[in-house]
Design a protein that fits this description.
The structure holds 2 protein chains of 2 kinds. Chain A contains 12 helices and 2 strands. In chain A, helix 4 packs antiparallel against helix 5. In chain B, strand 6 and strand 7 form a beta hairpin. The chains are: A mainly alpha, B alpha+beta.
Chain lengths: ~350, ~350
């Protein structure tokens, strides 16, 4: 027999925890106190709603995903963006940038695989993902995208080691055939990269988590922009400045995609509150500010090594903040019954009034 | 060719899942108007299915110390105390003596009058000081008061009250989001139209847990896998009734063919309305609702959210085609942006 509660936990611990999150002991009507925790005196965008709940308990189970998944959102996006940059550099003859793109793509996808497997409740069973392919499961689709992208990115990156091989013999042959193989693999990886960067938006949206589901039109664009920003950032830091002109334009495009596609996050009613308030809101805001700063600095950096590095760091940090902010916002919205009950009540009231007309 | 309603709308799930000539769809009708909150269903479920204990603790919110459906509680009896009278019933305290004992002294005397059984849970006999302290009114210690409601508050502060009890369970949705999003095929649709997790396949990815609009399926902490009600798939296969329905002493939990249960439920609601319980309503019975109708549905005496149920759940995969379209658009935007950035000037 197993025991969920550790035996050394004092009796009543669950009760005290429960009471701490509840303001009325009878639990009949649950009213959220204004400005909870670190919110201070911030004005709520939506007036606090009065609604019934079962003693203030959440209706939904909050996601059991750990920060591994927030980290994966970043590393997966970084890998995808870098593969695109690597292919662009390959086709326009920028070998330094190509190398950085391919190695970052491999590093990103390796980290992603580790994080995804580590997050599983049963990591040793990760290969069970490969039993089926289901379009109704974004995670299954993502598994197959990663299974295609990972080896291609790996081959493209390893082909960069060809110049280290000896000129003659069997290894010499490998030295000659590696670059064309790497080029094909790099282009193929880049072809799957946009899917890798954007499917994660569907991964989060295809849940009952209110703030994620309601954001389904925005999330793929936010993640696409964030992926390009992170990859441009790493390129600006690591690639020779003579080859980074496309990255400066790409950083600007990333900002346009993320800010343009994501502006609806704050305009989806009550469920946008976690994107604007609390810790998750601060992370999302920080991500946007850093993105603006990074893109602007990239534009003026020219061939300055220092400015390029600064703008690159801001872009990478922006991507991390955005991913963790969006991840956290979903967890907040699942934990509070308000975000589940109030929008559904409003929908019912709306349907009732339209059927009456 | 998938059914036109494969993601949303009325559908018979077993044929849609590929079964040829499946048995009729089976389900639960839980009539909360006759639930007495005995939790026999919770116990029977744990016994039959070998579900580990959920930890022994007091939640201090009501007589419900299970709290919610979890990986280790596949039936959960909700308990709600409300300051209103139950349907047609006479207000609870009409013409009854009210107010606390006249003085602590009277209470202390009263404590001595009964025959001492040595196990009296009320005022402590033989200990006037303690009895006097206990008669002073309720002290909130994390448990509902042991006194009858209203004794400590006086006539003015007294309200009617009613208790709502409801045995919650997995809804076995027609459009089950947990099943649709499962990336390993661990969750599957049975020939009875129910939804079951295969524990030897589940790798604990946790996607089903975020996808369930009712917050039913859950991860077992020390095990990592997802667990929920199987509607006793092993018992169904040999024509037996699920353990919880078998154990229910008031037939609040009724098991049977879903079509027949729906008729029975409609008749029960009509009868309750006729007898003066206008607040009786069905929940999850409608094949046109957001999840295509539940395999386990309920008769409730208040709004669903009072019992911790979502008032209007919609399966998340209804919007999946639109989501993939947005992702495709974003992917194209991303590729085009990169191409333009690289085609520009060299410096």
């Amino acid at each position: 027999m197993t025991d969920e509660t550790p035996s050394n936990e004092p009796v009543g611990a669950r009760f005290r925890e429960f009471r701490a999150g509840l303001d009325r002991p009878d639990g009949k009507r649950h009213r959220r106190p204004r400005g909870r925790g670190g919110d201070g005196g911030e004005q709520l965008t939506v007036p606090p709603a009065d609604f019934a709940s079962y003693y203030g308990r959440p209706v939904l189970k909050p996601p059991v995903w750990k920060y591994d998944i927030a980290g994966y959102l970043f590393t997966g996006g970084l890998a995808a963006g870098s593969a695109l940059i690597g292919a662009g550099a390959q086709l326009t003859g920028r070998p330094g940038l190509r190398r950085v793109g391919r190695w970052t793509a491999l590093g990103g996808v390796a980290a992603s695989t580790y994080l995804l497997v580590h997050d599983l409740g049963r990591p040793a069973r990760f290969h069970h993902m490969l039993r089926v392919a289901k379009v109704t499961s974004p995670m299954s689709v993502g598994t197959w995208i990663l299974a295609a992208f990972g080896p291609l990115a790996g081959v493209a990156a390893v082909a960069e080691l060809a110049p280290l091989l000896p000129q003659h013999g069997v290894l010499g042959l490998a030295r000659r055939i590696a670059p064309p193989i790497g080029n094909v693999a790099g282009l193929a990886a880049a072809a799957t990269a946009p899917a890798l960067a954007t499917y994660t938006g569907v991964l989060l949206a295809d849940t009952a988590v209110p703030s994620w589901h309601d954001a389904y039109p925005s999330l793929p664009f936010v993640f696409a922009g964030s992926a390009l920003a992170a990859a441009s950032g790493v390129g600006l830091i690591a690639a020779p400045t003579a080859e980074t002109a496309p990255l400066r334009r790409l950083a600007l495009a990333a900002a346009a995609i993320e800010l343009g596609g994501g502006h609806r996050l704050e305009r989806q009613g009550l469920t946008s509150e976690p994107y604007t308030h609390g810790r998750s809101g601060r992370l999302v805001k920080a991500g946007r500010a850093l993105l603006a700063v990074g893109a602007a600095t990239a534009l003026v950096s020219g061939r300055s090594r220092v400015l390029s590095a600064i703008s690159g760091a801001a872009l990478v940090a922006s991507s991390i903040a955005t991913r963790f902010g969006v991840f956290e916002a979903g967890r907040v919205s699942a934990r509070d019954p308000k975000y589940t009950v109030v929008p559904q009540r409003e929908r019912l009231a709306e349907n009732r009034s339209t059927t009456r007309l | 060719m998938p059914h036109a309603n494969a993601l949303y709308g009325p559908l018979d799930p077993a044929p849609d899942a590929g079964y040829e000539n499946p048995p009729p769809r089976m389900g639960f009708f839980t009539d909360t108007s006759v639930c007495i909150g005995c939790k026999a269903c919770e116990v029977a479920c744990k016994e039959w299915n070998g579900v580990p204990e959920s930890g022994l603790d007091l939640l201090g919110m009501s007589y419900d110390n299970t709290g919610a459906l979890t990986a280790n509680s596949w039936r959960h009896v909700a308990f709600v105390e409300q300051p209103r009278s139950a349907g047609w019933a006479t207000p609870a305290f009409e013409e009854q003596p009210d107010g606390p004992s006249v003085s602590p002294l009277t209470a202390a005397v009263g404590a001595r009058t009964g025959t001492d059984t040595g196990t009296d849970p009320g005022l402590s006999p033989g200990s006037p000081a303690v009895a006097a302290r206990m008669s002073g009114g309720p002290e909130f210690l994390g448990m509902p008061g042991a006194q009858p409601p209203g004794r400590g508050s006086g006539a003015e502060g007294r309200t009617d009250f009613r208790w709502l009890m409801m045995s919650d369970v997995c809804k076995h949705c027609t459009h089950a989001a947990c099943l649709d999003v499962c990336p390993t095929g661990s969750l599957f649709r049975t020939e009875f139209g129910t939804v079951v997790v295969q524990e030897d396949i589940c790798n604990g990815c946790g996607y089903c847990i975020s996808a369930c609009p009712y917050g039913v399926i859950d991860q077992r902490k020390d095990d990592g896998r997802a667990w929920k009600c199987t509607l006793c798939y092993d018992r169904l296969g040999v024509g037996m009734t699920p353990a919880c329905a078998q154990a229910c002493p008031t037939e609040s939990i009724q098991y049977g063919e879903l079509d027949e249960l729906r008729e029975r439920a409609a008749a029960r609601v009509a009868k309750l309305h006729e007898r003066g319980v206008p607040e009786a309503r069905l929940y999850g019975h409608d094949p046109n609702d957001g999840v295509g109708g539940d395999g386990a549905f309920f008769l409730l005496l208040d709004e669903p959210e009072v019992y911790g149920l979502p008032p209007d759940p919609i399966v998340t995969t209804r919007d999946l085609p639109a989501m993939w379209k947005r992702a495709g658009l974003a992917a194209v935007t991303m590729a085009v942006a990169t191409a333009i950035a690289f085609l520009g000037r060299r410096r």
